[in-house]
Amino acid sequence: MICTETDDKMHFGILFSQTVNLHEYEKSHQNTEYFERFPTPDAALTQPNKLKYYRLKNQLSKAAVAKYLGCTENNYARYECTEHGFSSLWLILKLSQLYGIDPYLLADEYHSFLLKGQAVQIKAFRKQHGFTQEQLANMLGVSRNTVKRWEKEKDTITRLNFEVLRRYMSQLCSE
């Protein structure tokens, strides 16, 4: 039997097709396992698990989500695996738009604080406890101008500063 280039391409095409089908089966099996582990979004307690939950629920690949966001697949993959959280509220808003869900479903405590309006909350906390901007700034280890910018929504509080503020808020509110 004489083997031609066309025969080789057909043979390669069949092997490639079988490999792709096997890959799709493995991916489908992994998705099933994931949804058994996290049957609802509430079961996916961490933000990375929530991101993965909604991506898989919408049957999107990491590459497709990364393309939508305008980043690399590797960058997006970090959002789904980091336990430290990420700071970008923009990312929460874009993904909630992509998945057609309320942004609060993807938000952790920090992002919920930002979504509710940091300026209003910081100023209300400060006034409720009789602190000046200078006093609050000293408590948080930042400048008065930083607090002023947060209260005017000219700057976003960092996750680290939010954690310090949150501790003060819970201490003072529990007294």
Topology of this structure?
Layout: H1 5-37, H2 47-57, H3 62-69, H4 73-81, H5 89-99, H6 109-115, H7 118-128, H8 133-140, H9 144-151, H10 159-174
Structure characterization notes:
There is one protein chain. This protein is mainly α and 175 residues long. Helices cover 70% and strands 0% of the residues. The chain is built from 10 helices and no strands. The chain has helices at residues 5-37, 47-57, 62-69, 73-81, 89-99, 109-115, 118-128, 133-140, 144-151, 159-174. The termini are far apart.
Provide a short characterization of the protein structure:
Helix content is 70%, strand content 0%. It is built from ten helices and no strands.
Sum up the structure in keywords.
mainly alpha; 10 helices
How confident overall, as mean pLDDT?
A: 82
**Helix content bin:** 55-70%
Categorize the overall geometry: elongated
- Unreliable parts: 3-26
Number of strands: 0
Terminal-residue CA separation: 89 Å
